[in-house]
Amino acid sequence: MNEKQYIKRAEQFVKTFHNQDTTGHDWHHISRVRNSALYIKEQEQSGNKFIIEMSALLHDIPDEKLNQSKEEGDQRLNNFLESLHLEQKVKQEIISCISTVSFKGGKAYSKLSIEAQIVQDADRLDAMGAIGIARAFAYSGASGQEIYNPDLPVRTAMNEAEYRTGKSSAINHFYEKLLKLKDLLHTNTAKRLANDRHLFMEAFLDEFFKEWNGQK
């Protein structure tokens, strides 16, 4: 198979896996991340296009939130890549890139390839702005979390397990993750795109609390 055929196989696999997702991790999210990653790659004139596109398409396949366990997700990704009979080096580059995409409570990675930086930036951009707000509420609803509860404090220092399983709310999620993303981006292109999205989220929160407190 050539690279276009690999991409087509990945698209079909991902569409099936994310079919009817209601957590904000549907095919449309994947497609936006792929498009943003390719745009960033072109603007930055850096990175391997095939690794970036495959990693963007497959980045949520092993996500623990969407599988019964981390091990199940990793195996699902590995099985699919094995079925493509890719060169081992290429397969490992894709797996390595995907392994660093998720926020995981703000976990920092010491060294990321340019491909991983680009895909991570693209994924984080989709968690910001109007779409990021919509996805935050979709995920909170699907997870049984409240819109907002003033008695729930914003969590500050969290490990990955606490971030995944601790009690929170959709509004707290802004302070625990979404408002932090602008300062965690790598590429100049993503930083530029993030500015308006960050301001939009801040404006939304201002309006939310005015209405919550009966000021409007």
UniProtKB/TrEMBL annotation:
Q: Which residues fall in a coiled-coil region?
A: none
Q: Which SUPFAM superfamilies match?
A: HD-domain/PDEase-like
Note the SMART domains from the entry: HDc
Which InterPro entries does the UniProt record give?
Answer: HD/PDEase_dom (IPR003607), HD_domain (IPR006674)
Q: Which domain of life is it from?
A: Bacteria
One Pfam entry name: HD
Question: What's this protein's name?
Answer: HD domain-containing protein
